[in-house]
Amino acid sequence: MTRAETCVVACADAWRGDGAVLAGSAGLIPGLGARLAQLTFAPELLVTDGEATLLRNGRAEGWLPYRAVFTMVAAGTRHVMMGARQLDRFGNQNISCIGPWERPNSQLLCVRGAPGNTVNHTVSYWVPRHSPRVFVERVDMVSGIGTDRNAHEIRVVVTDLAVLDFATPDRSMRLRSVHPGVTVDDVVAATGFTLTIPDRVPHTREPTGEEDELIRTLLDPAGAREREIR
Question: Collapsing DSSP states into helix, strand and coil, what is residue 150?
Answer without folding.
Answer: coil
